[in-house]
Amino acid sequence: MMETSPRKEMAADLLRIEQLEVDFEGFKAIRGLDFSLQSGELRFLIGPNGAGKTTLLDVLCGKVKPSKGKVRFKDIDLSKHQEHQIAQLGVGRKFQAPSIFITLTVQENLLLSMRQKRGLLSSLVAKTTPEQRDKMKYYLHMIGLEHKAKDKAGSLSHGEKQWLEIGMLLIQEPELLLLDEPAAGMTDSETEKTGELLHKISDQQTIVVVEHDMEFVRQFAKTVTVMHEGTVLREGTMQDIQNDDKVAEVYLGRRGERDA
Ligand SMILES: Nc1ncnc2c1ncn2[C@@H]1O[C@H](COP(=O)(O)OP(=O)(O)OP(=O)(O)O)[C@@H](O)[C@H]1O
């Protein structure tokens, strides 16, 4: 076994889930799941269809309430909070359905997201402070859309729209970012850029990515958690996971990945 450094041992978990259970009218989508994350991690969550990955993200953002177990984010019990409160506590979730305003520019979309507490109109007409301008520039650069700042969001490619959405989440500066298949439907070069973006983000924020594209996971994952039937089957580096027979049996093998 690898020795953990003293610094790592001392680092408190950003997220700690113990014996989580989610019950959908008698069907346990999550059963006895333990999971923890430290600040600054980029964690990929994989597993066969129905393993409970989306349900886990739903619990983390407060969309689904657990029937049992503990969910602690920075030592706050998330099960006692509503979805909007959890967002304010610093958990940002990107859903697959787009939530950008296509008739507004890239910049305006970011601005709206930054000034979320105001109404739509007052957000757009309010004067931008130098700090806000700097923040906007910073995130525009991060998502690689500086040159499209004044373009209508509706004119962006699929990949660019996804990055804009990620930017809209980032500009709210959540501590934990939850992404569901961020590279789905992207071209190869967009997929590559998305992987690089995830690494850039993880310099400052903690990210959990649910992903089906194994090539993407192989290329960009640091630590992978494999879920199966509502619980964690294995956790480790992609290499550990790829060499694990049980994982191959329930997941990789099923898709013929090992023979590829
Ligand atoms: N609202 C619900 N009511 C009843 N069953 C549900 C509900 N949501 C999810 N399930 C079931 O819970 C199980 C876990 O679903 P979940 O979507 O979390 O899996 P997943 O790992 O994200 O799968 P996929 O990779 O296919 O997206 C599945 O069997 C699913 O049918």
TrEMBL record:
Domain ABC transporter stretches: 15-254
CDD domains named among the record's database cross-references: ABC_Mj1267_LivG_branched
GO molecular function: ATP binding; ATP hydrolysis activity
One cellular-component annotation, GO: plasma membrane
Keyword presence, DNA-binding: no
SUPFAM superfamilies: P-loop containing nucleoside triphosphate hydrolases (SSF52540)
Coiled-coil residue spans: none
Keyword terms of this UniProt record: ATP-binding, Nucleotide-binding, Transport
Protein name (database record): Urea ABC transporter ATP-binding protein UrtD
Any one Pfam family match given in the protein's UniProt record, by short name: ABC_tran
Protein encoded by which gene: urtD
